[in-house]
Amino acid sequence: MAVDQNIPLFFRLYSKLKHDIITGVIPKGTKINSIEELAREHGVSQTSIRKSLELLEREGLLNRKQGWGTIVPENVDFRLFDLGVIITSKDTLPEVENALTDIISAEWIPPNPRVTQLLKLDKSSSEEHIYKIYVRFVFRKKLDFKALVTYYFTQHWMRRISLKKNTPPRDIIVNLAKWMESTPLKITESLFPYLCTGEDAELLGLPDGTPVFYQTVVLKERKKSIP
Predict the structure, then answer these.
(1) Which residues form the domain of 104?
(2) How far, in Å, are 13, 53, 192 from residue 3 at the CA level?
(3) For the domain that residue 202 is a member of, what is the CATH number?
């Protein structure tokens, strides 16, 4: 879980409590501390505590019982996705091929500093432009979830698997899934909590201000060791 100075205090606390609930640090059926106790424990205002608890209640991770307090329900249901496991599984290609795919935008762009850092491009790199695809997925099989995904493809990678600049975006994504199935990968990930608003919330069919997680995944082919 990333903690950043730009993330509001109430959302940081929400993220911590959610993490503790879904990992079992706070077990099902547990009564959590009062708003006053939580405020003292975490050094934040009672207003921030209330906002955090409201988000958790909205997700069904907490219930308030009159005269008893706030508890983690015994029947709480949550799903955890280990994206690294999903990517390297044999289910990736059929999931991608059968997903509802809405290409929002696809264009060649000069790599900005963030993307340059993520892809570890240096000044001597020949990558003057990279291909950016922004897509909404609705996975309908085992994964059964919606996602907004931004892909960045280097020209070097596209040439390597014999893709042309005019290859349709969906075909590029399917070819990526095929490449992932056949290639030993090194995967690095980072996870950031944020409030989904505006167009993103509309595309995912979520109420404005719904808490979600933004995950960055970088795939690299593992170098084969030489005996």
Answers:
(1) 83-221
(2) 10, 18, 8
(3) 3.40.1410.10
Asked if 146 and 205 touch (Cβ cutoff 8 Å), the reply is yes
106 phi and psi angles, rounded to 5 deg = -150, 120
196, 206 contact by CB (below 8 A): yes
Question: Beta-carbon neighbour count of residue 137 at 10 Å?
Answer: 18
Contact status, residue 183 vs residue 161, Cβ threshold 8 Å? no
pTM, entire model:
0.71
**One-letter identity of residue 70:** T
Exposure string over 159-185, b if 16+ CB within 10 A, otherwise e: eeeebeeeeebbebbbbbeebbeeeee
Of 5, 7, 9, 69, nearest to 45 (Cα)?
9
Which phi and psi (to 5°) does residue 191 adopt?
-130, 130
pLDDT tens digits for range 18-66: 888 877 889 999 999 999 999 999 899 999 999 999 888 888 889 988 7
